Amino acid sequence: MKIFCKLMFIVCFINTINTQAQNYPQNYFRNPLNIPMQLAANFGAVRSNHFHMGLDLRTNSQENLSVLAAAEGYVSRIKVERYGFGNAIYITHPNGYTTVYAHLNKYFDKLDAYVKEQQYKDEKWEQDITFQPGQFPVTKGQLIALSGNTGGSAGPHLHFEIRDTKTEECLNPLLFGFAIPDSVAPIISGLYWYDRRFSTYEPGANAIAVKKAGNTYTADIVRVNSPTISFAIKAVDKANQGFNLGVYQAELLMDGKLIYGFSIDKISYDDTRYENGCIDYTKFSRDKMSIQHLSVLPGMKLPNYSLPNLSGIINLQDNEAHTIEIVLKDVKGNTSRLATKVQLGTSVNKINPTGNIVQPNEAKTITTQNAEINFSKNAVYDAVNFNANEKQDTDPGVISNIINLHNPYVPVHDNYTVKIRPNRKLDQDEKNKAVLLFDYGSDADAVKGKWNGDRVEGQFNRLGTVKLILDNSLPFVSPDWKEGAVVNNSTLRLKGTTKVGDIVSFRAELDGKWLRFARVKNDFVYAFDEKCPKGSGSHTLKVTTANTAGNVNIQTFTFQR
Fold it and tell me: What CATH number corresponds to the domain at position 62?
């Protein structure tokens, strides 16, 4: 009877996490490309600060492939942006779903002309336009765009999403019956355990070697020195195509009893940053390793991810060896299993934090001599023994101490506020040029900030070091043609450069009229069209840019066409 109850509990878990899949229409949506669907990334793959929210479909390393409407409906929205989706189309369908197609090069002619007209009307390249049902209706299989590599894309591909139109939640497209062959079970390459008496961040992951035999994996007995532990797994899915895809479903059992499970069926963009509480963020950001927790961190609140009332926290009450089984599955049901045992040895003393403790679900203010850091109650996923200190900087452009905010390998969920006092009195012009410069180790960010009494405050959502600087530098652009030359290329390209921060404002005028330049990372590109045809003679291009500090530069260039 006891064994039967355990089996029924497991069956109930599997049925629960597959309920949504059973309700999704099968074969309603077609492949949005004219080539077989091959995945470069799947729904739920681990990315920097978010889960991947759709499918990345391979385009054979080519751009300008035909992108087709996955089903009948109407274009309800388009976006044009520097990063993110680049050029994107949203199609709303009569069955309650919306499909999204991103990183496009060009919309279909009628829509492209509408967007261009709107850009010139607004004198603004970036757009976010919504449409009524009768404006741009589409049929299933209709050409809607050409694929590309725009926005936050690292190579030519099509990003494809299916969303619930009402809730705007992203749904796992692989649950809708697309014909993508997959006979490869998830591949496990690592097992880790954590001392959960304080935090997963201290002392961190303990690696356990994994051995493989077919789809079955084993590990030597895991001897631990803490009575309260949790596990995490390093694994990928391959789906017959060689790319490292994310794991769809995981179960953790101890002595035959299910104690944790997750399934990646749907995620909203409002919640996707909770990914940082589902993974070993330190390993991901520092070592580029994707390791997923098989337990719930106290500040992780991602809905529809793991089963309620199953924390994955293991409390060892004796020194016996207990059986551990980890089961991983993909959408097609291909299954891998890892079997091992865990045993409590001699317990070592619990970590006793000595610094400022930032706890999940509690707001916290930390101060140093010249800085104040304010965290919300949603700031952290697990307890952080927070280290904050100051040190001097000898650079003449730096007007504050360097404020060290713990380290960049611990995640923060939402924006926190930093207030910094400069190390000398500033006049009003200097105050206007003050910028908060944040160093994350691998990259940096600059924020204008605002004055609050004698301090400058800014908001950030990562940890590292921050300092206050004076930026008197000008942004500028460099043309890819010689001054006054005849330009026979298909485009004009300007390379943008700033000493600090970013070019936050760009405006180009051709012979006194606004000209549409697209932003491609740090470059600005104009594709010649009727606004500047061949044989139109000499032209003057006036470019106005502004950087993070608000410094404005006006440059003038000439060319012939």
Answer: 2.70.70.10
Query: Does position 99 have pLDDT exceeding 70, yes or no?
Result: yes
The CATH number assigned to the domain holding 480 equals 2.60.40.1220
Longest dimension (CA), the chain: 90
Are both 198 and 299 inside the same structural domain? yes
Cα–Cα distance measured from residue 280 to residue 361, given in angstroms and rounded to the nearest whole number: 19
Tokens coding 37: 């669907």
Query: Whole-angstrom distance between the N-terminal and C-terminal Cα of the chain?
Result: 85
Q: Mean pLDDT over residues 538-556, rounded? A: 97
pLDDT at residue 349 greater than cutoff 90: no
Lowest mean pLDDT: which of 5-14, 30-39, 209-218? 5-14
What is the C-alpha separation between 408 and 173, in angstroms, rounded? 33
**For tokens 């891998």, what's the residue?**
336
Cβ count near 94 (within 10 Å): 11
Element (H or E) spanning 431, and its range? helix 428-432
Q: Is the pLDDT of residue 426 over 60?
A: yes
Residues 33 and 146 in one domain: yes
* pTM as predicted: 0.93
Burial class (CB in 10 A: 0-12, 13-18, 19+), 416: buried
Instruction: Please list the alpha-helical segments (H only) found in 186-334.
Output: 281-287
- Expressed as residue numbers, the domain containing 279 is 187-344
Closest alpha carbon to 331 in 486, 186, 469, 432: 186
Per-residue model confidence (pLDDT) at position 442: 80
Q: Residue 2 pLDDT > 50, yes or no?
A: no
- 25 preceded by a cis bond (ω within 30 of 0): no
Number of domains in the chain: 4
Query: How many C-alpha atoms does 400 have within 13 Å on its Cβ side?
Result: 30
C-alpha span between 186 and 246 (Å, rounded):
9
**Same domain? 166 vs 122:** yes
Place of tokens 């690292």: 154
CATH of the domain at 459: 2.60.220.30
